[in-house]
Amino acid sequence: MASAQKTTTEKLAESTQSAPSSAVAQQSDNVAHALAGAGGGLLSMALTYPLITLSTRAQVESKRASSSTLAAARRIIKREGVAGLYAGLDSALFGISVTNFVYYYWYEWTRAFFEKAALKAGRASKKLTTVESMLAGALAGSATVLITNPIWVINTRMTARKSESDDALPGAPKAKAPSTLGTLLALLREEGPARLFAGVMPALVLVINPILQYTVFEQLKNSLEKRRRVTPTDAFYLGALGKLLATSITYPYITVKSRMHVAGKDGPKESMLTTFRRIINEEGYSGLYGGIGPKVTQSVITAAFLFAFKDALYAYTISARRKIAAKKL
Questions:
Q1: Which of 18, 31, 178, 260 could form a disulfide with 182 if both were Cys (CB 3.0 to 4.6 A apart)?
Q2: Counting beta carbons within 10 angstroms of the beta carbon of residue 309, is it exposed (0 to 12), middle (13 to 18) or buried (19 or more)?
Q3: How far is CA 264 from the centre of its chain?
């Protein structure tokens, strides 16, 4: 009897100890996913940034952006040098690192919650359903937008800045590009802190972009995992396909968000719907798709590299963590 009581007590103690241990492991796994996502985003952004510059310029310069992507690149290089293609790169790298860290942390946290709920409900598979993937993406995306919107306002301002050399006399020295900190301080001084949240409404609507992207990715990945192990190469192509679909559908909102980001202090403070109507009235529906070529190309390549890098970095992070844990034993 005493032995039985001891066994019960031991089991109770083990279960009490395993709960915190499981929670710590889950937290560690969430952080590993977040760090891998941040690193993957940083690497993929650095590789494709000139395409972001071309797309952003086309989105905010309206009818001036009617030239081809190659002609636009030549124009920027001629008036600003090659560095013009990388305007705002420092804020973009910081922004994508924070954005992806926040997004992946919340996505994995929500995903783990749904998986636990599936196990408690006795579902045969703990894999997320399409609806659960969309909900996880919506929660993670909304949290990310609210936290990182100020970073992207600054980045868009820097990326879309028009060189003063356009109006300068021939031979006149070019104005030095403002720094990230300089752009932030100027915006706060001239327009107030509220402008850091310009375009937040279309940005929240654009949460559907990663929802579509990750839902397509997760479902295709789950389907492939039934047949074999998913490799970083598989993740590259699945990520590209998901992003292609998501960006093509949501591009008009990306244009509206960029226009709202660069609206100056003396310009009209328009709502999302008003901006939509103005673009359509002044430029036609094609105005909503300015720069879609380089943007889709950049988004697809970035997403493909992101998923490939993320899977590789996550595997490396987990391996390193296990080695450190083994040395402590």
A1: 178
A2: buried
A3: 25
Q: Taking a C-beta distance cutoff of 8 angstroms, is the pair 305, 47 a contact?
A: yes
Going along the chain, which residue ranges are E strands?
Answer: none
pLDDT at 18 over 50: no
pLDDT at residue 61 in the model? 63
Residue 252 tokens, joined: 């008009």
In whole angstroms, how far apart are CA 202 and each of 127, 187, 206, 271, 310?
31, 20, 6, 9, 27
E-strand stretches of 138-286: none
Choose among 143, 154, 142, 145: nearest CA to 93.
154
Q: Name 259's Cβ contacts closer than 8 Å, sequence gap at least 6.
A: 59, 60, 199, 275, 279
**Which tens digits make up the pLDDT trace of 85-121?**
787 777 778 888 888 888 888 888 888 888 888 888 7
Q: What is the mean pLDDT of residues 123-144?
A: 78
**pTM score, two decimals?**
0.58
- Give yes or no for a contact between 320 and 55, defined as CB atoms under 8 angstroms apart: no
Share of the chain above pLDDT 90, in %: 0
What six digits make up the tokens of 286?
């094609």
> Where is average pLDDT lowest: 77-91, 103-117, 276-290?
77-91
Average pLDDT of the chain to the nearest whole number: 74
Exposure string for 282-301, b = 16+ CB within 10 A, e = fewer: ebeeebbbbbbebbbbbbbb
Residue 300 tokens, joined: 């697809």
**Could you give the CA distance from residue 10 to residue 18 in angstroms, rounded to a whole number?**
12
Say what percent of the chain tops pLDDT 70: 78
Burial of 230 (0-12, 13-18, 19+ CB in 10 A): middle
How far, in whole angstroms, is CA 304 from its chain's centroid? 13
Backbone φ/ψ region at 264: left (φ over 0), alpha (ψ -120 to 50), beta = beta
How far apart are the C-alpha atoms of 311 and 314, rounded to whole Å? 5
H-helix segments, 160-291: 180-191, 200-205, 208-225, 232-262, 272-283
Instruction: Kindly state the DSSP code that residue 229 receives in the 8-state scheme.
Output: P
